[in-house]
Every structure is written in structure tokens, then in C-alpha cells.
Amino acid sequence: MQDFIPFEIIEGDYDKGMVLLADHAMNRLPGAYGGLGLPESAFHRHIAFDIGIERLTRRLAAMLGVPAVLGCFSRLLIDPNRGEDDPTLVMKISDGAIIPGNHPISREEWDFRLNAYHRPYHRAVERTIARAGAAGRAPLVLSLHSFTPFWKGVPRPWHAAVLWDSDHRAVLPFLELLRQPGDITVGDNEPYDGALKGDTMYRHCMTTGTPHALLEVRQDLIGDEAGMAAWAERLAPVFTTLNADPTLHEYRIFPSRTGPYPA
């Protein structure tokens, strides 16, 4: 397991002041875990990773020439987009699938997964954001995720969505730019609420006053090469426009809807 690297940094021009993140980019596990007792088919489902996001993030990083950080382990092992004290950090059941390798789990194993996978990923995110802001100008951080087209049999009408807590600076122009062509339905804090204490945006952006937004794209739209490429072409100019706004390169702390920040 020591040979398993839990993150990948895609190098780019840090002076451009933009960082892309993909917490749930991959569905991989260290060999010692086998499949956590699950069939291989489970690792092709959304419970294991965000379908389409790895390729989309790589394409956008290349098109924009900016750095990105990818999570290299499945969220079934430990979820990098959860706080360390979140009870859903290591899931026992996910969308009806029982995960035998996660239940029961000892305190020792819980701590091992934090130290071996979760914390190294977040240290990589922290280093990358710090390097992009080394000149004293806040970087714009954009986190990429994907969501299922159906939930419990109910179709989700959104093609994409922007999730956020209370820092609206990047979110409002982001929503406007995504909606401008008029050909897609864009959710605002749908199908999830972006205020989650301890998650990646909370930890690296809300608490530091770094401008940011989290984008969700529906998985069926980016599940193949053509769809992914089309969305990269759609998003690249939007990201460029956002990054050109000087107000999105200033540090400003907003209170979180989840409550006071840790002292």
C-alpha cells in the first residue's frame, strides 16, 4: 500500500491563478484491499467515483494550461470530499450497496486510511493552491464533480449545477455564463447543497477566503469521449472569463452556513 500514490498533480502555469480539483476522479484501490468485498461492477458505478470527471479535468487543464489535483483513490475507500470527523467519511452502505470491507472498521484502520490517503491528498491540494497564490493574488479554485441522471427512479432535470456555501463571488457569474447559451438547465445548489462542513471547498477555500465554485455535470453527458470533449469546449471559455475577473483574485472570508469556523 505504500506504493499507492493517493493524488496526482497535473502541472500548469501557476501564474495564471487558477486551480482545478477533482476529488472523486478515480475508482482505484490499493491492491491489499481487493474490492472491499464488492463485485468489480460496483467500481463502474457512481458509488466508486465521479464518472467522466477525470477525463474532463485533464482536458480542461490542458486546454487552459493550469494546474489540477486529482484524487487517485475510490471514495469507497475513504471520501476526500468529507471532513475528518464526518460519519460518512468511510461509507458502510452507498446507494443500496453494502460495503463489506468497511464494516466493521477498526479505529486503527480508520486512522490508517486518513493518514495514507485522505491527508496526503489534501496536503497536495493545499500546496497547489498555495503555489498558485504565491505572488499574493488569490487563485480561483474550481472543483469538478458529476452526478447521476436519476435518483431513486426520479430523473434529474439539470444538465449541470453550481454548488456553493455563502461565497457568491465566482458562483453568480458562473451560473450566468453557463445559462447564457440557453440550451441547458443549470441548477443552483442542486441536486445537492454546497454547504458541507469540512469538505474540500470548506477546508481550502471558505476558511481561507479563496474565491471558488464547485461544478457538477450530469454523468450521462460526459460518460463518453464525445460528450466529455463537448463539455470541455463549453466550459473552457467560461473558466477563462471567470479567471479574467480581478475580483475573483481577492481573499475575502464569508461566514459559512454550516456554523462558525474552527478556532
Automatic annotation (TrEMBL):
Gene3D superfamilies: Zn-dependent exopeptidases (3.40.630.40). InterPro entries: N-FG_amidohydro (IPR007709), UCP029730 (IPR011227). It comes from the Bacteria. Pfam families: FGase (PF05013). This is N-formylglutamate amidohydrolase. It comes from Rhizobium puerariae.
